[in-house]
Specification:
The chain is globular. Helix 5 packs across helix 6 and helix 13 runs antiparallel to helix 14. It folds into 3 domains: about 60 residues; about 200 residues, Vaccinia Virus protein VP39 (Rossmann fold, 3-Layer(aba) Sandwich), CATH 3.40.50.150; about 130 residues, Serine Threonine Protein Phosphatase 5, Tetratricopeptide repeat (Alpha Horseshoe), CATH 1.25.40. The N and C termini lie far apart (about 75 Å). Strand 9 and strand 10 form a beta hairpin. About 55% of the residues lie in helices and about 10% in strands. It is an alpha/beta fold. It contains 20 helices and 11 strands. About 15% of the residues have low confidence.
C-alpha cells in the first residue's frame, strides 16, 4: 500500500485530486493499466517514469476522474445566466464577453451555453461572446473537440434542441460545425492558473460539479487561482449542491432571483443582488465537510463514522469468543448470545449495503446503486435511508415519477423526513414533474417548519448524512418558498383580471 500512497501523493501534488475511499479503486486500475502499457511491473520504477514523463502522467490522470456529465445540467442557473445576467452585462460592457468552463470534461457544459446563447441572440451571439473550456485531462479534451455524443449525454436536453443542433453521425450525434468551432478547448490545471493559461480575464467562470474531487484546503487554493482569472465585476457559478461548500472566504456569495453565485468582494452587481452569509444553522454541518471525499458531479453525501461492519477477522474473533463462552454457559444463554450476534451481523450488513449504495451514487454508478438498493428494500422495505437514496438515484436516472414514489414512501414512514420533502419540491421546481406550485409550497414549507423546530435534524436518516446540511436546506427552502409565493400571487392576480 505504501507504493500506492506515493501515487496518491503525486496526483494530489500536481492536480489536487483527492483519491480516497472508493476512488482508490480507480487508482489501482490506473496503475495496472500503466504497468501493462509500459511493461514496468515495479511500482518504484513506474512512479519514477510517471514523474518524469508528462505524456505518461496525462494518460494516468485520464483514468482517475469520473467524466460523467450531460447537456443542460442544472438548467435554472444556465437559464438565468443567458436570459438575465449576460443581457444585463451587455448593457454596461463592451462585447465580447468571455465565458470559461473550468473542468469542462467532454464539453457538454460549454456547448450547452453555446446552444442557449444562439437561441437567445442568434448568429450575433458569436460576436457577443467567447466560449472556452479547460480541463486537465488531454484525452477528454480531444473528445470535447470532436463533439460527438450519444446516450445519457442527452438525458436533459430537449428533443427540439437535439434535432436543431445535432446531426446523426456513425450511430451517434455530432454537434453542428458552426457551434463546435465557436468553443475553444485548452489544457487547464486548476491548481495553477498560470500554467497552460486559458486566457482571461473572464466575465463568467463555470466551476460546476468539479469541486467534489478536492478537499477543502485544495478548493480554497483553487478559488485563489480562479480569482486571478475572473474579471473585476465577473461571476463564478458553482453547482447547486456545491455552492455553500465553496463559500470559503475568497469570494463573496451572492443571490439573484434564486440563483447563487460568487463575485469578488465589495464589487457592484450587474443585476439586483443580495449578499449572503452562510446560515448559522449549518456551522457544524457545512456542505464543504460533506463533499471533501465525494464522487458525484451534483450531490454531496458522506458516510457516518463508526458504522462500518466488522471485518472478517474481527467477526471470526467474535465467533471464537462466543464459542468459548458457550463452554461455560448454559444452552439457553449460548443461544441468546448467538441470536444477538446474528442480529448484529444482519444490522451491520444493511449498514454496509447503505454505505456502498451511497458511494456508488457518488460515483455516478446509478444502475449499480439502484440494483443494490432494490435488494436492500426487499429486506427493509421501510428503511428511510434506502428510500431517500433510491429517490435520488431515480432522479439521476431520469425517472422522476419513481423518485416521487420513493420520497412519498419515506414521508409516509417518517413525516419529519425533511430531505424527502425538499426533493419532492425540487422535482416540481426543476421541471422534472409538471409543476404544481401549491405542492411545491407545501413541501418547502414543511422543510422550513421542521428545521425551525429542530435545526440540526437528520430527518430520520440513521446511516447516511442528509444530502444537504440542514442549515443549507432551510436557507434554500425559505428562498424557494418566497419564489413560489410570488408565482401564486401573480397567478391569482391574472385570474382576477380575467
Amino acid at each position: 500500500m505504501s507504493a500506492f500512497a506515493s501515487f496518491k501523493a503525486l496526483v494530489h501534488q500536481r492536480c489536487g485530486l483527492h483519491l480516497e475511499g472508493l476512488a482508490e479503486a480507480r487508482l489501482f486500475r490506473a496503475v495496472a493499466s500503466l504497468q501493462t502499457s509500459t511493461g514496468l511491473t515495479d511500482n518504484t520504477q513506474l512512479l519514477k517514469k510517471l514523474t518524469s514523463d508528462p505524456a505518461l502522467f496525462d494518460q494516468f490522470v485520464s483514468h482517475l476522474t469520473v467524466n460523467e456529465t450531460y447537456f443542460c445540467r442544472e438548467p435554472d442557473a444556465l437559464n438565468w445566466l443567458v436570459s438575465t445576467y449576460l443581457p444585463e452585462r451587455l448593457a454596461t460592457e463592451e462585447p465580447p464577453l468571455s465565458i470559461f468552463s473550468a473542468g469542462c470534461s467532454s464539453g457538454e457544459e460549454p456547448y450547452s451555453v453555446a446552444m442557449m446563447l444562439f437561441e437567445r441572440f442568434g448568429e450575433r451571439a458569436k460576436t457577443l461572446f467567447t466560449l472556452t473550456g479547460g480541463d486537465l485531462d488531454h484525452q477528454i479534451l480531444a473528445k470535447a473537440r470532436q463533439a460527438v455524443y450519444s446516450g445519457m449525454a442527452f438525458r436533459a436536453l430537449s428533443p427540439a434542441f437535439k434535432e436543431r443542433y445535432f446531426s446523426p453521425y456513425q450511430g451517434r450525434y455530432k454537434l453542428h460545425e458552426s457551434l463546435r468551432q465557436w468553443v475553444t478547448f485548452r489544457p487547464f490545471n486548476l491548481l495553477n492558473a498560470n500554467e497552460d493559461s486559458p486566457g482571461g480575464p473572464f466575465d463568467v467562470i463555470l466551476f460546476r460539479n468539479v469541486s467534489i474531487y478536492f478537499d477543502q484546503q485544495t478548493r480554497r487554493h483553487i478559488h485563489q487561482q480562479l480569482s486571478q482569472l475572473l474579471a473585476p465585476n465577473g461571476i463564478l457559478l458553482c453547482g447547486v449542491t456545491e455552492t455553500f461548500g465553496n463559500d470559503l472566504g475568497v469570494f463573496e456569495l451572492t443571490e439573484a432571483r434564486g440563483v447563487f453565485y460568487f463575485r469578488h468582494a465589495e464589487q457592484p452587481g450587474a443585476v439586483p443582488t443580495a449578499s449572503l452569509q452562510p446560515p448559522l444553522l449549518s456551522v457544524d454541518n457545512r456542505a464543504g465537510d460533506n463533499i471533501d471525499n465525494g464522487e458525484s458531479a451534483t450531490i454531496a453525501l458522506t458516510s457516518s463514522a463508526g458504522l462500518a461492519p466488522a471485518t472478517p477477522t474481527e467477526q471470526a474473533a467474535k465467533n471464537t469468543e462466543l464459542e468459548n463462552t458457550g463452554l461455560e454457559s448454559s444452552d439457553s444463554e449460548n443461544k441468546n448470545l448467538e441470536n444477538k450476534e446474528l442480529e448484529k451481523t444482519a444490522t451491520n450488513s444493511i449498514t454496509h449495503q447503505l454505505h456502498t449504495a451511497h458511494q456508488l451514487l457518488n460515483q455516478n454508478a446509478f444502475d449499480d446503486a439502484a440494483t443494490l438498493l432494490e435488494e436492500l428494500l426487499k429486506q427493509q422495505p421501510w428503511s428511510i435511508d434506502a428510500l431517500v437514496l433510491s429517490g435520488l438515484v431515480a432522479r439521476w436516472q431520469q425517472q422522476p415519477q419513481q423518485a416521487y414514489d420513493y420520497f412519498k414512501r419515506a414521508i409516509y414512514v417518517a413525516p419529519d423526513c425533511w430531505p424527502a420533502h425538499f426533493y419532492l419540491a425540487e422535482l416540481y421546481r426543476q421541471g422534472e414533474l409538471t409543476d404544481e406550485p401549491l405542492q411545491r409550497k407545501q413541501r418547502y414549507a414543511a422543510v422550513v417548519r421542521l428545521l425551525t423546530t429542530a435545526p440540526t435534524s437528520d430527518g430520520g436518516l440513521e446511516t447516511i448524512t442528509p444530502p444537504l446540511p440542514p442549515g443549507d436546506a432551510r436557507f434554500l427552502a425559505e428562498r424557494y418558498l418566497n419564489t413560489v409565493d410570488i408565482t401564486l400571487a401573480t397567478a391569482s392576480t391574472t385570474q382576477g383580471v380575467g
